[in-house]
Amino acid sequence: MSNQLKKKKILVIDDEVDLREMVKYQLQVKGFEVTTAEDGIDGLEKLKTFEPDLITLDMNMPRMNGLEFYEKIKGGSDKSQYPVLVLTARANMESLFRELDVDGFITKPFEIEQLIQECESIIKKNSRVVSVDGQQQGRARKVCIVENDSDRLKEISYSFLESGYVVNTAQSGACAMKRMAMDVPDVVLIKLKLEDISGDVVALKLKKMEEMENVHFVLYTSDSAIDMHIVEHIGKKIGENRLIESDSPAELLQAADSVFV
């Protein structure tokens, strides 16, 4: 385990005693500090004295199930104050968990190594340091990726997740504007040719929002024949001349990283 993960704290919430204790043991072997809870109510009690870097959350539990617990720790906001990895036997609920914006999802039964790798990945992602006005902030960089092609969106998103970003996505300009009004990112990647609204128009509308004042924008296109006069025009419109003539995940990641230098 890297120094970045040593002494990180995990709260394991599961009503299955054997599974709960096995997960606790395996995580402790990896160097994590682990506390357990038998259901949502017990989990809320533990949070009064334990500040976790990650919560592993079972869904089907007595007294208070996983969904009820998740709503409690969200409070009135759109996102939990703690990173959450959902564990459930219901594979068909993945779309629901994505809508809830949990940090990860594993279907039971699972290999313990898969769980450990996912825990490490989520904690690394949420521990990435961001520079804001010259000060180091102990949180992950947030990116919103706007891409209408679902396969390409997955490829780009995976690249950013692997590099430690917190990733939000949208497959249309309208959805992007609604999503970012609720959860402001540090950088936005927008495909130039979206199906509903042109990417440069989306960027222009977003930049007019007061809460988006300090957000960076990167537009991209796979159209290598684009006229450079169009690039200059778009740059002037959005106030940033960052239009990448590629939809390669590696090049987009490099472009996003460069805005923080």
Automatic annotation (TrEMBL):
<keyword id="KW-0805">Transcription regulation</keyword>
<dbReference type="InterPro" id="IPR011006">
    <property type="entry name" value="CheY-like_superfamily"/>
</dbReference>
<feature type="domain" description="Response regulatory">
    <location>
        <begin position="142"/>
        <end position="260"/>
    </location>
</feature>
<keyword id="KW-0902">Two-component regulatory system</keyword>
<keyword id="KW-0597">Phosphoprotein</keyword>
<feature type="domain" description="Response regulatory">
    <location>
        <begin position="9"/>
        <end position="123"/>
    </location>
</feature>
<dbReference type="InterPro" id="IPR001789">
    <property type="entry name" value="Sig_transdc_resp-reg_receiver"/>
</dbReference>
<keyword id="KW-0804">Transcription</keyword>
<dbReference type="InterPro" id="IPR050595">
    <property type="entry name" value="Bact_response_regulator"/>
</dbReference>
<protein>
    <recommendedName>
        <fullName>Response regulatory domain-containing protein</fullName>
    </recommendedName>
</protein>
<keyword id="KW-0238">DNA-binding</keyword>
<dbReference type="GO" id="GO:0003677">
    <property type="term" value="F:DNA binding"/>
</dbReference>
<dbReference type="Pfam" id="PF00072">
    <property type="entry name" value="Response_reg"/>
</dbReference>
<dbReference type="GO" id="GO:0000160">
    <property type="term" value="P:phosphorelay signal transduction system"/>
</dbReference>
